[in-house]
Specification:
CATH superfamily of the largest domain: Bordetella uptake gene, domain 1
Strand content: 15-25%
CATH class of the largest domain: Alpha Beta
Radius of gyration: 30 Å
Largest sheet: 6 strands, mixed
CATH topology of the largest domain: D-Maltodextrin-Binding Protein, domain 2
Strand order of the largest sheet: 2-1-3-10-4-11
Helix content: 40-55%
Distance between the termini: 91 Å
Oligomer: single chain
Number of strands: 11
CATH architecture of the largest domain: 3-Layer(aba) Sandwich
Shape: globular
């Protein structure tokens, strides 16, 4: 039988002490880790929002310099920079009716430092008209709020013997197929508005698509077309000279720039509602605390008197909105325009 090995008591004591110290160290490390997690978990949500923005913020715009979105960005970017103490940079990513810029922001890091100047075109019309859109307007964005709307009005040529919407409807019914309506394109907001008018009033107007809204207005002035849904700022001067007549507002509410101008819905034509708007969205997974700060900051800026005056000067109507209302509006626009697109036989 092999002899039983002897144990040096001093070595055993040292080994036990070493194991004890290691175990104590592990326990202490675990305690420190747990305490750190506890502190992070109990940190107030405001601290995350207070740290935003921690670097320059980019406003991505789908319009070229001078376009609607670019104009809005240049009004609000300096105000945001002043409010946050960080640079706010405007980045124009033009193409595909603003969808290139929208797709870029949808895939950007959701930290609030990349925002999109969105429009009814790339969030509503694109969802209706483009089959393989590389983003989902409602799923891929966190709605911050609409900031401005673009007043749209129903204008007719002064050559047309009508001075009201009821007279226009009566004339169209008495002369079926004779009236023409200009638009900036078959799938444009002005084209959709014309189709809504035809459906609500039960009249026949031949749509004539132009390569933009300005050429359509020129067609109205020259007598090539009889009717156009145009931006108020584009026809207001011509109405003052008597070259055209403005009959109604094309949106869902009266405009502050023309408070006496009734909407088509007020005049008995429900469903004719094309609100062209601009707003701000962030990537979908932006933290709630950052989103709340964005909402509050934008609301503060829209309430500023000088901002409102500048928006009105460039033909916009200031809009103070909530994320919930914004999302509901986009959803309603998509549903409404989908019906019109099917009626027009537009492919998707």
């Amino acid at each position: 039988m092999d002899p039983v090995p002897t144990v040096d008591p001093r070595r055993a004591l040292l080994r036990n002490a070493s194991l004890t110290r290691a175990a104590c160290g592990l326990v202490l490390l675990r305690a420190l880790f747990a305490a750190t997690i506890g502190l992070l978990g109990s940190a107030p949500a405001e601290s995350f929002a207070d740290a935003f923005p921690s670097k320059p913020v980019r406003l991505i715009v789908g319009h070229a310099p001078g376009g609607r979105g670019d104009t809005l960005a240049r009004i609000i970017a300096p105000k945001l920079a002043e409010l946050w103490g960080q640079p706010v940079l405007i980045e124009n990513r033009v193409g595909a009716a603003g969808n290139i810029s929208a797709a870029y922001v949808a895939k950007s890091p959701p930290d609030g430092h990349t925002l999109l100047i969105s429009t009814s075109t790339n969030l509503a019309f694109s969802a209706v008209l483009i089959k393989d859109l590389p983003f989902d307007p409602l799923r891929d964005f966190a709605m911050i709020g609409r900031v401005a709307s673009v007043p749209s009005v129903l204008a007719v040529s002064s050559r047309l013997p009508v001075t009201s919407v009821s007279e226009l409807v009566a004339y169209a019914r008495a002369h079926p197929g004779r009236l023409t309506g200009g638009s900036s394109g078959t799938g444009s907001s002005s084209g959709f508005a014309l189709e809504m008018l035809k459906s609500a009033a039960g009249i026949d107007i031949l749509q004539v698509p132009y390569g933009g809204l300005a050429p359509a207005v020129n067609g109205l002035l020259s007598g090539q077309v009889d009717v156009v849904f145009a931006e108020f700022g584009m026809v207001r001067g011509h109405a003052d000279t008597g070259a055209v007549r403005i009959l109604a507002a094309g949106g869902s509410r009266r405009y502050s720039v023309a408070p006496d101008l009734p909407t088509l819905q007020e005049l008995g034509l429900p469903g004719v509602d094309v609100d062209t708007w601009l707003g701000i969205v962030a990537p979908a997974r932006t933290p709630p605390e950052v989103r709340a700060k964005l909402v509050d900051s934008i609301a503060q800026i829209v309430r500023m008197r000088d901002v409102q005056e500048r928006l009105l000067d460039v033909g916009f109507e200031p809009v103070e909105d909530t994320p919930e209302s914004f999302a509901q509006s986009v959803r309603a626009d998509i549903e409404r325009y989908s019906v019109v697109a099917r009626r027009m036989g537009l492919p998707r």
